[in-house]
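Quick start: what a row looks like.
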Amino acid sequence: MPWKEVDPMEQRIQFVMSVKEGSLPFSQVCYLYGISRKTGYKWWNRYQAEGLPGLGGRSSRPWTSPNQTSELWRERIIELKLKHRFRGPRKLHAMLQKRFEDVPAASTMGNILGQEGLTKPKRRRRSSSKVTRKSLTQPVYPNDVWSADFKGWFRTLDGNRCDPLTISDLATRYLLCCKVCLNQKELTAKAVFIEVFREYGLPQVIRVDNGAPFGSRGPSGLSSLSVWWMRLGIKVEFIEPGNPQQNGSHERMHKTLKAETTKPPSCNRNAQQRRFNKWRKEFNWERPHEALGQIPPASRYEKSARAYLPVAGDVQYEPTWEVRRVRSTGEIKWKSRLRFIGRPFRGQRVGLLLIKPGIYQVYFAERLLGEIHDSDPKGIRPVTLITKKRAKSARYSNNKTAKKGK
């Protein structure tokens, strides 16, 4: 038979009724109910003062808390949040530390903003597999790696299309450019890059996605724009298709840019550009960045020592290599035949390196484009096609060896 659960309120009522009856001494009644005389007097005194309602449970919370955040600080935190509604507690905490001493903790500020309904709890995301970044340059100093991308087009209130092109320095998170473009064509993007190169100099690496105008489906994924970068001595890195997280800091900046400057959009392109300029200035010079220890990017960034030269020279190769200039059709003359290399390389010099009798690797600068086989009258065999064929050949060889082993 299970033990009968006793309601505390019911037991206290029975206790005071027994004391009120007076048939037993007070100490003996306390002993029968398993409580001390001190506890017994507490409940008896409460009954005499308040009646049966006084026997109910009471909160143990203290009347005062010396560590409670003052109303002045609550007002400061809420006022700053309303002024910068897209910034979280940690950024607001860093901003207040510049103006005041003994600032409440960022967690306390988060609780206050949550109580006021000024923040929303973040949804927990499932953990994803780690991204392999072995082939990507890890930025250490300013201008080590720049990232460039078009932030998805939208229409201004007058109905015109707006394509913002953004360029950022990954080491310092400094936003070099946020330019309204009429389209996403190569010539449009090149004009913006010339303007940025003239102001900030050249980076060591530019990291982009595989889409136009940065990449193409041609050899090594290069476009006319990325070929121009390589002629200037800039290494080009492409993220893996379908892996925008490899350019995570730039994509995160795009999320903030979209939320703070495009919802709603401005009345026209000029107004939208002024809005971008104002936001970029605040982002670079005022906004604390967590990856930098809550200091603004402008405190870390400095211009590149590599100056931009409008006229880029021809790419040079080793004296032992065969060198050919790509024609306007995207072809070279090789072994009395025209071999197609790619239209992005028109007018450029490519180098051919003999690796086997009748097989040459084709390079543009240090980048391997593919192979040319004397036995094949067609054009270049791109790197991707070569890799697939070699992998297929390796699988066939392994299967053949396994069958012999049986």
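That is the whole record. The longest helix spans residues 383-405. The two ends are 70 Å apart (CA to CA).
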